[in-house]
């Protein structure tokens, strides 16, 4: 009868029309993030005992968004939180009971730092094209670069 216990619970979840099927790991590689239609990765987290969410920012890489999420969830739930990168969290014992704005600020700082480090390490974007510097539109062209007719 032990086997019937397991099969009855799994069949009841398969028949529940309100439950969404679990996304593939390719669509959502880390906890707490999602990908926008245009390719940016965003992170947000629900505040404990509230319906509101803390917006953690949008990033060009899923790792940066996941690191921002990890920072926020660690400050909200403490060392027992389920993290994407538990080895990357630095525990500061003085930082506890932070406001939502302080958590958002810390998480976006971490995410932006990771995003910048990854952009510097990988100059190619997601599309495979080489990233070019944006020209300063307020600067006059130098004689070497101007075209003579």
UniProtKB/TrEMBL annotation:
Residues 29-86 form the AP2/ERF domain. GO terms for biological process: defense response; ethylene-activated signaling pathway. Keywords: DNA-binding, Ethylene signaling pathway, Nucleus, Plant defense, Transcription, Transcription regulation. Residues 1-30, 120-149 are annotated as: Disordered. Its main location: nucleus. Residues 1-13 have a biased composition (Low complexity). GO terms for molecular function: DNA binding; DNA-binding transcription factor activity. It is found in: Nucleus. One of its GO terms (cellular component) is nucleus. InterPro entries: AP2/ERF_dom (IPR001471), AP2/ERF_dom_sf (IPR036955), DNA-bd_dom_sf (IPR016177). Probably acts as a transcriptional activator. Binds to the GCC-box pathogenesis-related promoter element. May be involved in the regulation of gene expression by stress factors and by components of stress signal transduction pathways. Belongs to the AP2/ERF transcription factor family. ERF subfamily. PANTHER family: ETHYLENE-RESPONSIVE TRANSCRIPTION FACTOR RAP2-1-RELATED. This is Ethylene-responsive transcription factor ERF011-like. It comes from Sesamum indicum (Oriental sesame). The lineage of its organism: Eukaryota, Viridiplantae, Streptophyta, Embryophyta, Tracheophyta.
